[in-house]
Structure formats: C-alpha cells, structure tokens
Amino acid sequence: MPDALQSEDFGPTHIPFSRRFKVRSQAVAADFLVDVALPAPYLPGAGPWPILFVTDGNLAFPTAAATAGILPIEPGGPRAMCVVGIGYPLAGQGEAGEHLALRNRDLTPLRDEGWERRMRAAPPPFRFGDELHTGGGERFLDFIVEELTPWLAARFPVDAGDCVLAGSSFGATLALHALFTRPGAFARYLAISPALWWADRHLIELEERYARTHDDLAAQLYLCVGEAEEAQAPEVRMVSELEAFAGRLDGRGYRSLALSHEVLAGETHVSVFNAGISNGIRRLFGPG
Fold first, then answer.
1. What are the distances in angstroms from CA 82 to CA 25, 55, 156?
2. For the chain, which domains are there?
3. What are phi and psi of 165, to 5 degrees?
4. CB within 8 Å of 178: residues ≥ 6 apart
5. Is there a smaller number of Cβ atoms within 10 Å at the N or the C end of the chain?
6. pLDDT digit string (tens) for 65-78?
7. Can you list the positions of beta strands (E) in the chain?
C-alpha cells in the first residue's frame, strides 16, 4: 500500500555540481538568476573550462547542464565545459511565469511595437503590461560580456576567452545579432530556431550589411530548426528562412567561419531545444 512506503522529503531538487546566484546587472538595471554548473570531477580533461552561456535559464539550464555534463563520457565526446544559465528570480515556484514576459525585454535586439501590442493582449503567462518594452538586447549583451564574464572568471576555473552564446527562439535571435555586431565577444554561437522575422527581418538586413563591409567572420556557428516548425507557423517560414540564411552565409566565403546547420526531423519550436543543444555542443566542440 502507498501509505506503507517509507519516504523522506529532501526539499527542492538541484543539479549536481551547480551553484545558484542572484546577480544585479547595472547594464540592465535588473536582477538575474544565474546558475553555474561546473564539470563533474570524474569527467576527462582539466580546466580552465569553456563557458556555455544559455539564455532562458529558467527553462533551458537544467537540460543544457545535464547534456553538457554527460556528453564528455561518450567515446569521441566533446570536452567538458562550464554551463551558465541566465534566468530570472521568480515568485513562489514560478506560478506567474515572469520569465516568459521578461525574456521579451532582454533577448530582442530591436524594439518591435507591433509585437508589444500583440503581447499586451495575449493570455497569461505571456501577457505583459505597458511597463515592459522589447529591444533590450544590447543592454543584456553588455551584462554578459562586461559584467557576468569577469565575475565568473574571478570565481571559477573558466576560460573567459572561449565563450559560447547559446539560445533558442529569441535567445538564438540575440546570439546571431551578437555574431554580426560584437566580433570576438564570443568564440562560438549555438542558435536554435532563431526568429529571423523579428523587427521586419532585422537579422537578414544585418547579415547583408555586414557582408558589404567585411570579407571575413571569425566564429564557430551552429544553426538548427525543427522540421515541424514550418507547418506550425507558415507565415514566418521558420525552416525555409533558416535554410536560406545558412545558404547565404555559406556563400560568403568567410575563411574563418566554421558553420554547420541542420533541420531536425520531427521537432517543433517547443521540442527542438533538447536535440539542438546536444547536436550543437557536439558540432561546436568536437572530440574532447
């Protein structure tokens, strides 16, 4: 009988070898929840470790930390790394879903007032009020590059010169924006289902503008999208636009750009992160 089952409540779950911090950003003038997962001591290799920054940390950090924490064990697996999730302090256990609104502020590189009007009328927990605006991506990147990275380097055995910016949807949009606007800020980029349609196709224009004034792009980039996303939202052509975008990058002839891209069979905009983070880590790091 269930009543006879012996049990002991150990409280909230946690991820092994990880620490959680509340960090105040001067650049954004806001608090962030920063989760830091270091490699397990039984993993091969030694530090200082590359840093994998993962946006949407409230949702993405557990998966990213677990994936990066186990892949180095497999034959030919990637090297171990430090995973840093950037999320938001939540009331209670997150019942109000504050992170689902706040991400609109920090992960979008330009303001889109049409999107704001749409989300002010959206159902909870996606709805946000007049006090929140999109387009804070540059401030958020300042936080990562100028505040968070030095803070991490002062406290953990990490390589601040080997950073990956990883994100899905708006997080991937911000990663691609950083690729073209902040050369050298990150060594690698992991972009899962980027919103190439954002702000009248800002990223498409940004890539074209970059190509007109540069003959090289020094970075490693992994791009992916879920196969089922085109049918989910035909109006934004997630699969077609990503394939065209990757094709343009391939055709530029950038000698220092290591690009890999793929359409992940059967994945939707919601499910694609799990496969994308695993494949992306493998593509970007290769054998450890």
1. 21, 14, 9
2. 18-285 (3.40.50.1820)
3. -105, 115
4. 141, 165, 185, 186, 189
5. N
6. 999 999 999 999 99
7. 18-25, 30-37, 49-54, 82-87, 158-168, 188-192, 219-226, 257-264
Burial class (CB in 10 A: 0-12, 13-18, 19+), 28: middle
Asked if omega into 75 is within 30° of 0 (cis), the reply is no
Nearest alpha carbon to residue 190 among 155, 224, 238: 224
Q: Please give the model's pTM, rounded to 2 decimal places.
A: 0.95
The predicted-structure confidence for 51-110, as pLDDT tens digits, reads as follows: 999 999 999 999 999 999 999 999 999 999 999 999 999 999 899 999 999 999 999 999
CB 168 within 8 A of CB 276: yes
Displacement of CA 68 from its chain's centroid (Å): 14
Tokens encoding 18: 């990880």
Q: By the 8 A CB rule, do 82 and 53 touch?
A: no
Strands 82-87 and 30-37: antiparallel
Size (the chain), residues: 288
| DSSP annotation of 173 | H
Q: How many whole angstroms separate alpha carbon 235 and alpha carbon 10?
A: 47
Read off the pLDDT of residues 131-150 as tens digits, 9 standing for 90 and up.
Answer: 999 999 999 999 999 999 99
